[in-house]
Amino acid sequence: MLTLLAKLLKALNSETGAWALAFAFVLGMMVGFTPFWRVHNILILLFALIFRINLSAFIVSILICTGIAYLLDPVFHSVGSAWLSSESWRGVWEAMYSSPWWRITQFHHSITLGSIVISLALAPLVAVGSYFIVVNYRLRIQKWFLKLKIVQALRANKFWAIYSDLRG
Amino acid sequence: MTKQLRQSTIRWPGVGAFFIIIGLLVGFSFLLLDTIIKWTLESSLGTLNRAEVNIASVEHGWVPLSLTVSGVQVTDPAQPENNRVVVGELRGDLDLGELLVGRVIFDQVNATGIRVNQPRQSPGEVYTKLSKDEVSKAAGERWEALKMELPSMDEVMAQVELQTDTVIERAKSNLDEQKQQLKQTREALPSSEQLAEYETKVKELLEGDIESATELAERREQLEELKAKFRADRDSVKAFKTQVETAKNVVQSDISALRKAPEEDLAKIKSFMSFDATGLENITALIFGEQIRSWSKYVLLAYEQLAPMMQRADDTAEEGPLRSEGVWFTFMEANAPPEFLVRNAVTEFAFGETILDVNWQNITHQHTQLGQPTTFQARADNSAIWDSFNLTGEMALKDNGFDARQQWQLKGAKLNDIGLSDRAEFMATMAATLLDSEGSVAVRNGLLDGDASVRLAELKINASGDSRWAELLSQALGKLNRLDIRTEIGGELTAPTLSLNSDLDRQLGDALRSTATDAAQTKLAKLQQDLTAQVNAVIAEQSPELAGLVDLEGLASSKDAKLEDLLKSQLEDKLKDKLKDRLLKKIGGG
């Protein structure tokens, strides 16, 4: 069972290019910032799994950004409310609201809309920033990081051994 | 030679992982669907209710698409230890076609085992504190205000200035004064001898021979002099008569006052022995307020429970968001069908063993879209606990606010063992009564406006208490056998206020007074006896005086009449006749 799971993770983590990791962080941020049970998150998950996105980075990004989202909810709410309350957009919202397909996206929820807007706005910055961090990490920080006792302890367990063997 | 593998853009294992994840999520949701619905309902209904909502269990059915919710407890935000409403079971059939396009439409909803104002096992959480007054605390303060002592007979006697003594003294004084004045005016009266002398003189003047015209003139002059005396004496007699009349009136008035004085003093003592009026103020609300407020929860159920939820469902976009929950905006077109609608519902209210079905139509918070109000009717005749009951009403949430009206008639409701007060110092229970009630109430812009009558007949109240006031109140309540209470309904929809008016304050005041005076009856009887004896002694003195005055009045009238006769005496004609005869004799005799 562990072998099967490790094989799956190996396949999903086979993409370790800097941009693959950077996109993983961006997609994870979008899932983490927006309310979880939304249709767009299924699409993001599908995108992350089908295309060559690093899954570990994706999951780590989701966890971190979910925590940050809790703090940013008031901002998401303000942005979403402001846009949804805008009279000039009312016609658009009414048209979308009358469509069952758009209703499924739950766009008329203030935090949902606000968090999507902010996620999209931050996406280029996060992508470039993540790319920069990954490249610099591999150049300067990785060796030091791997020497940390806690990291060595984690690498000593059975699952990591199977995972490492498969990775070769 | 380096072998370069050209990787596909699609990561096929990822596709498998996606379907596994989605499959797990769907399967997990499917297995926990009832729990998810339960949590969702508890959360959303709790938000609308502003206090904790508990649901025992939720079951769903696929064909037809239905939902059964059992054991719903809705905490009262104003009294978290109570549920404002409890629903035994609620079952609704959903319209699948409408659900697919995002509308929650129930064709039929049946709710059974509904009870209001039920105690909770543990206090429910209140999410938003209401600012309305705590009724029980206010009631408690008023009970404290009523805790007063009834004054004893001796205390009352010390405070009350008895009037009988004053009346006696005044009567005696008046009599002395009148006697004195009568004595003075009586001295000016002509004596009987004087009147006889007047008669003799008048007779002499009228009957003697007349010799000449000169003598005639002299007699006329003497008669005028006499008449002047008569007039003076007549004025004295009239003055005396007036004085006698005055004295008679004064004495009669005093005797009358003397006779009334003991009764008036006793009435005064009795009134001093009653409770202070401020203590009895609005005792109707004090004793029956809690119970009527509890009954009103049934009458106002539609408004108190459903209307605020409708309003909050509509107002969420304008309210501040709960943390991490956000706000759902609505962009409905004017002619769009409502998103939430219960076309028909039957809610089954339980009153002990009696069940009352209330039929609802068009329950929604989007009446503008629907174009119709939510309506409800209930009619039940010859049930175990009442003869007839009829309730009709409608409500609608419009652009200008909540608009509703309802009216009801209840006849012959048989009530037993209804608790009125369970305070340690005063316990009261309505052992039995027959209740009739009718009224109407409307809501305009969130404000209630209505009135209702509550008639309690064949009333039996058992009350008890250790303190003196509680004991007296208990006795007085025990004497009540009917009561009409007029109830004014007002205030805000979320915090209705009831003001109760009845003749209970008067009835109770009389009963308390009666009870208090019963306790002092022996002393009061003795007091009455003493006062009456004092008064009778004075009346015994004054009555002969009054009889004497009547005699004097007769005497004065007799003298007055005699003088009037004397004043009528005419000298002219007689003298002329005599003088004429005399002249004729002289001429005839030669």
TrEMBL record, chain A:
Residue intervals passing through the bilayer: 17-37, 44-72, 111-134
Residue intervals of the DUF2062 domain: 14-139
Keyword Nuclease found: no
InterPro entries (alphabetical): CHP03546, DUF2062
Keywords of the record: Membrane, Transmembrane, Transmembrane helix
UniProt-listed Pfam families: DUF2062
Entry keyword annotation includes Nucleotide-binding: no
Origin superkingdom: Bacteria
Protein name (record): TIGR03546 family protein
TrEMBL record, chain B:
Transmembrane residue ranges: 12-33
Source species, domain of life: Bacteria
Alphabetic keyword roster: Coiled coil, Membrane, Transmembrane, Transmembrane helix
InterPro entries cross-referenced by the UniProt entry: CHP03545
Coiled coil: 168-233
NCBIfam families noted in UniProt: TIGR03545 family protein (TIGR03545)
Name of protein: TIGR03545 family protein
Organism: Pseudidiomarina planktonica
